[in-house]
Design goal:
Largest sheet: 7 strands, antiparallel
Structural class: alpha+beta
Oligomer: single chain
Number of helices: 2
Radius of gyration: 18 Å
CATH architecture: Sandwich
Length: 197
């Protein structure tokens, strides 16, 4: 039983390390949540990796953004080449399966500019929610492969990021703390096993 638990913890830890180094194309990253009147502004940044490019119609989606205030009007972005769509399902690339609650709006940012080669900073994205409590949920994206034999073909991506969930939080963990959680679980499990011996 102990060896099975250890293997599970090692698998989780290696998956977390692999996720940090694995290929991805658009990577939205939660930055902060701050008061905005009686609501809360959730701010993200996004980057395009060096092996991808953006073409007109490429996009990324943050799923199940609870408590969105003002619909699409409550969402802003720093780069005028993006437009925002708010839908309860999708937009999802065809080769990935995202966890998507059809009763909660998704935020999709669609590129309407000229072709942009990575690496590139894609700007800041802010949405207003009536909640400052957070959980992790899916994001997806679609871009175009920029290098190698598969250059010119679509790249679909899926990952996790912080989103609002119902409730009020007394403190919001730093993005790095959320990302390091699986590694902390791994370390605690290994230390625990060592001391049981």
């Amino acid at each position: 039983m102990r060896s099975m638990s250890t293997r599970l913890l090692l698998t989780l830890g290696l998956a977390a390390i692999g996720a940090a180094t694995a290929h991805a194309d658009i990577i939205p990253v939660f930055q902060s949540v701050s008061p905005s009147g009686s609501n809360f502004a959730w701010t993200y940044t996004a980057d395009l990796t060096n092996d991808a490019r953006l073409e007109n119609g490429n996009f990324f989606t943050i799923y199940d953004f609870t408590g969105l205030v003002g619909g699409a009007a409550g969402v802003t972005h720093s780069n005028p080449n993006w437009t925002v769509q708010v839908n309860n399902t999708g937009m999802t690339p065809p080769t990935v399966i995202a966890s998507d609650d059809a009763t909660i709006p998704n935020l999709t940012f669609v590129w309407n500019g000229t072709t942009l080669n990575g690496p590139a900073n894609l700007g800041t994205f802010t949405a207003i929610s009536n909640s400052n409590a957070q959980k992790l949920d899916d994001f997806t994206s679609r871009t175009i492969k920029n290098v190698g034999a598969a250059a010119g073909t679509p790249i679909d991506n899926i990952g996790k990021d912080a989103i609002p969930t119902p409730g009020t939080a007394s403190a919001i963990p730093l993005p790095g703390a959320v990302a390091m959680f699986p590694l902390g679980v791994l370390a605690a499990g290994l230390v625990s096993r060592r001391f049981r011996r």
